[in-house]
Write a structure and sequence with these properties.
18 strands; four-stranded antiparallel sheet; alpha+beta; globular
Length: 534
């Protein structure tokens, strides 16, 4: 998809779904409100509530994920929430709520395995119709204010104290008000629905769907209630067993679509007693459910190629995942053998010897037979290193000699990093991490290596105060500029070396960069014997 088409699709989605283009930046006003409410209610829930305010934050970026398996390739909007002010609080709140409040619907399922276990307990009658429903754009259509009231009632009935109920409610409401984002240089707000990216969106969507199912689907006033043998929902995908006729199913579908002005469903029905749901093909044969693995038509056979510069465990990860799924789903012999052939074909298409699949299957069988649940799980220290080819294997062999140490590798040169730019770039000066300031005088080789948990622009202003104020010598770089009368341009003379958060990793990278630059013949760190800690 070209960049022009991508921007047009996302912009069209925003315009047609009630998103509002803002004239002014709302971040300053929201920040003031955020600090005030967190100070008021944060101490009730979290002793370290002050740490829930990031040192550096900005307006989150929205990007679109193309749904390539659907006609006209529509866009699924996602907000990159981790750079936002509310990110840490929403994440902690979600953990707090999950541990203390039963907000899950009795009709929701955790995954494919959960669905299979539930269906095993059901003997389908001869007249059963299989169907699936999909909630259209669930996150962007959930009525936020109504959901907050439902959530508050849920909290009140959960047995929590009044002070905890009030604190959870007001902090949740505060996080959901972080509903503005940037796309293509413009700031938008989402007055309706939940942000896909907010740490509390999944929780709130589940709270609303639990209410919807209780109030409409399984309510005594539902004239079709007795026709529903089962209703299993995974987020916005619903698998139902219908005891009525096709016409009654159609009537129920139409009835369901007028229960709430925001919530609309799409319907798919079985063909020859078979239907696809999640990654399963579910078929009724001889009065029981049979399962096969379903792959969407859009799914390709691509995996990490055997010749790619990745650690061998990364190359085999996809095949291990396929094999794990193959053993988790109760396939009959015919379907099992078919899946093995499919996996071998995918392996061969990506440059692997198909026999490697047999070896992976045998390893899986051995683990199952040896009963992994009784194995002793040793506490291991993990080290993650970038992968550079053969030299990485040699480093790994040396480090493995250390007791209780596990090495993992990561690849930093993926095609996605090189080719995909679907987010608005964040300017360097708005980021935090380990940075380098270069003297603007062409003949001068002085540089400054520093680190900051705040945005770099703020830290640069502090450096330049030592340039402007005669009595201020706090910054060795600012003092150099002052003493030599050299120039410095923040737009051209700043380099972000490592975009990492404040903490031990940032401090380590700073020390390494100072040492590396001190060995250079071309640059001279002005802070060679000191390090910056803010």
């Amino acid at each position: 998809m070209s960049k022009t088409s991508y921007i047009e699709k996302v912009t069209s989605f925003l315009q047609s779904n009630g998103f509002t283009l803002l004239d002014a930046d709302p971040l300053k006003k929201y920040t003031s409100k955020f600090r005030k409410i967190l100070d008021q209610f944060g101490p009730t829930l979290f002793e370290d509530y002050k740490k829930l305010i990031p040192m550096n934050f900005n307006i989150p970026r929205l990007y679109g994920l193309p749904k390539v398996h659907k006609n006209d390739i529509p866009i699924r909007p996602v907000v990159s929430f981790y750079t936002s002010l509310a990110y840490k609080l929403s994440k902690r709140l979600n953990e707090y709520i999950t541990d203390r409040v039963d907000y899950q619907s009795p009709h929701s399922i955790k995954n494919t395995g959960d669905l299979i276990e539930k269906l095993k307990k059901i003997q389908p009658p001869n007249n059963l119709i299989l169907a699936s429903l999909d909630v259209s754009n669930l996150f962007t259509t959930v009525p936020v204010q109504q959901t907050l009231q439902i959530f508050k009632n849920l909290l009140i009935n959960s047995g929590l104290s009044d002070s905890i109920v009030e604190s959870i409610f007001h902090l949740t409401k505060l996080c959901l008000e972080q509903n503005f984002f940037m796309f293509n240089g413009s700031i938008y707000s989402q007055p309706k629905g939940l942000n896909m990216g907010n740490g509390l969106s999944s929780c709130m969507a589940e709270v609303f769907m639990k209410y919807f199912e209780k109030s409409f689907v399984f309510h005594v006033n539902n004239p079709f209630k007795d026709k529903i043998l089962f209703w299993f929902r995974y987020v916005d995908d619903i698998f139902i067993g219908w005891l009525g006729s096709q016409q009654e199913l159609s009537d129920f579908y139409n009835w369901l679509n007028i229960r709430h002005s925001n919530i609309k469903f799409t319907l798919e029905t079985e063909e020859n007693n078979s239907i696809n749901f999640l990654d399963l093909t579910i078929t009724i044969r001889e009065n029981k459910f049979n399962f096969d693995i379903y792959r969407k038509p859009s799914q390709t056979n691509h995996s990490i190629h055997s010749n790619s510069c990745h650690h061998h465990t990364h190359k085999l990860t996809a095949f291990r995942s396929y094999i794990h799924r193959m053993f988790k789903i109760p396939l009959d012999k015919k379907e099992f053998d078919k899946e093995v052939s499919t996996i071998k074909y995918i392996a061969q298409e990506n440059g692997f010897d198909p026999n490697i699949i047999d070896r992976l299957i045998n390893k899986k069988k051995f683990r199952l037979l040896s009963n992994d649940s009784h194995r002793t799980n040793k506490v291991e220290n993990y080290i993650s290193l970038p992968f550079f080819g053969d030299i990485s294997y040699q480093i790994s062999n040396v480090l493995k000699q250390q007791k209780n140490l596990k090495i993992s590798f990561k690849t930093q040169n993926t095609l996605q990093q090189l080719l995909v730019y679907n987010k608005d770039p964040l300017p360097i000066l708005e980021k935090s991490g380990v940075y380098k300031l270069k003297c603007g005088e062409p003949s001068c080789n002085i540089v400054y290596i520093g680190r900051s948990g705040r945005n770099i622009a703020t830290r640069i202003k502090e450096h330049l105060m030592s340039q402007r104020i005669m009595s201020n010598n706090k910054s060795t770089f600012g003092k150099h500029l002052k003493d030599t009368n050299h120039e410095f341009d923040p737009n051209t003379d700043v380099e972000l070396l490592h975009p990492v958060e404040y903490g031990f990793k940032q401090e380590t990278w700073e020390e390494l960069e100072i040492y590396k630059h001190s060995q250079s013949r071309y640059e001279e760190p002005v802070n060679i014997m000191s390090t910056n800690t803010v």
